[in-house]
């Protein structure tokens, strides 16, 4: 083929070559876009997995923190005496946690002793109510079984006195039943024979702590206690 013919053939082939190059570039662009889409989706899936995993880690950390803040102790004794005195064992555990942090040798600044923080004179009174022949001594209140039984006896006493009203029972455990009876006679703090306002700030905080503990214990340990006693009905103080 002569030089002139080769040039003509080359010119005729140029459009086809340009089309092939354009098609190749488009194909590369399509592949690149597909790769980008896959990468983006992969990143989204990865971040979602990390986020869900992080949420699970956070939830587990919160659960473990709650378990540390609301530990259980002496559950067999609580169950025994709660059953004996017809009490909700979760309420007993909640009060014990708020009173002594489950410490059997705890002593308060005002002289309360033991798991249920019984005052010495109250302990002697309760002890002789349970057993008139009892040779009472102060160190008995550091015995877990004695402290829990005395606390349960007193809660039962308060429950009967205040017709099972939890706000009055818990307030009386903290401030004394005589004090709460005085509040019930004062229209500023009660209505229709029921306590509506806890006038002592310390007692109001104590009631809120017991309610919070009760809600946490029943949520964290739903099968810890089985009982025929009526569960506590919480009311706002």
Overall pLDDT score = 85
Note the overall shape.
Answer: elongated
Number of domains: 2
- What is the third-level CATH name, the topology of the largest domain? Lysozyme
Question: What share of the residues does DSSP label as strand, in percent?
Answer: under 5%
Helix-strand blueprint:
Elements: H1 3-69, H2 75-84, H3 89-100, H4 120-130, H5 144-161, H6 166-175, H7 177-184, E1 190-191, E2 194-195, H8 201-220
Helix pairs in contact: 2-5, 3-8, 5-6, 6-7, 6-8
Write up what this structure looks like:
The protein folds into 2 domains: 69 residues; 146 residues, Orthogonal Bundle (Lysozyme), CATH 1.10.530. Helices cover 66% and strands 2% of the residues. 29% of the residues are buried. The chain is built from 8 helices and 2 strands, in the order αααααααββα. By secondary structure, it is mainly alpha-helical. It has a two-stranded antiparallel ribbon. The radius of gyration is 37 Å and the shape is elongated. Strand 1 and strand 2 form a beta hairpin.
């Amino acid at each position: 083929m002569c030089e002139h013919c080769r040039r003509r053939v080359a010119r005729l082939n140029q459009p086809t070559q340009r089309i092939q190059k354009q098609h190749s570039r488009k194909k590369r662009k399509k592949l690149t876009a597909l790769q980008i889409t896959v990468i983006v989706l992969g990143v989204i899936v990865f971040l979602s997995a990390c986020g869900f995993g992080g949420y699970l880690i956070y939830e587990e950390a919160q659960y473990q923190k709650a378990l540390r803040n609301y530990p259980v102790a002496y559950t067999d004794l609580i169950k025994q005496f709660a059953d004996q005195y017809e009490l909700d064992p979760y309420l007993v555990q909640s009060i014990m946690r708020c009173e002594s942090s489950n410490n059997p040798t705890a002593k308060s600044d005002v002289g309360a002793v033991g798991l249920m923080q019984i005052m010495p004179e109250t302990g002697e009174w309760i002890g002789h109510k349970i057993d008139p022949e009892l040779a009472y001594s102060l160190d008995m209140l550091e015995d877990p079984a004695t402290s829990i039984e005395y606390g349960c006896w007193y809660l039962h006493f308060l429950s009967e006195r205040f017709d099972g009203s939890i706000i009055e029972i818990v307030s009386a455990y903290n401030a004394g039943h005589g004090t709460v009876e005085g509040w019930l006679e004062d229209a500023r703090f009660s209505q229709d024979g029921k306590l509506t306002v806890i006038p002592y700030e310390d007692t109001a905080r104590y009631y809120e702590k017991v309610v919070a503990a009760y809600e946490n214990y029943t949520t964290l340990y739903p099968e810890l206690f089985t009982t025929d006693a009526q569960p506590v009905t919480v009311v706002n103080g």
